[in-house]
Write a structure and sequence with these properties.
This protein has 139 residues and is α+β, with helices and mostly antiparallel strands. The protein contains 3 helices and 9 strands. The termini are far apart.
């Protein structure tokens, strides 16, 4: 009988221990740059947008958007302009700076967190907290 009572007491103690450890939902907003917060339209993403001109001058700004695709988000904000080509969006203007291979041999190269992007801006899903850099380059 003592063993049964001991086992019951032990089971009650463990259940009280685990039930008391649940975390209450926080009412404070997460204001960190790398946060994703749900809103009525889906998700909101925050990332850094960098523009490096032909002289190496860099300008950057923090962007928040509900768009999931980088190209669409930047087009909607008026930060990039281009035309549809056979391989997707051909970006000719970023942050008011024009780079057009057909006229001056320069083009916009896209980097994600310092690595050359393997796809175009219109195919890249935004990663919260990432750095997207557009750099004028020459072949």
């Amino acid at each position: 009988m003592k063993k049964i009572l001991s086992l019951i007491a032990l089971a009650i103690a463990f259940s009280m221990l685990f039930c008391g450890c649940t975390k209450e939902p926080s009412t404070e907003a997460d204001t960190s740059v790398s946060s994703i917060t749900a809103d009525e339209n889906g998700y909101s993403y925050s990332f850094t947008f960098e523009v490096v001109d032909s002289e190496g001058k860099t300008e950057s700004k923090e962007i928040e958007t509900n768009e999931k695709i980088l190209g669409k988000a930047l087009q909607n904000l008026g930060l990039i302009k281009g035309e549809e080509g056979p391989y997707g969006l051909y970006i000719k203007e970023v942050g008011g700076i024009v780079a057009d291979y057909d006229t001056d041999g320069t083009y916009w190269a896209l980097y994600v967190n310092g690595e050359y992007a393997m796809s175009g801006a219109d195919a890249i899903e935004i990663t919260d907290g990432a750095v997207y850099s557009f750099r004028v380059e020459t072949m």
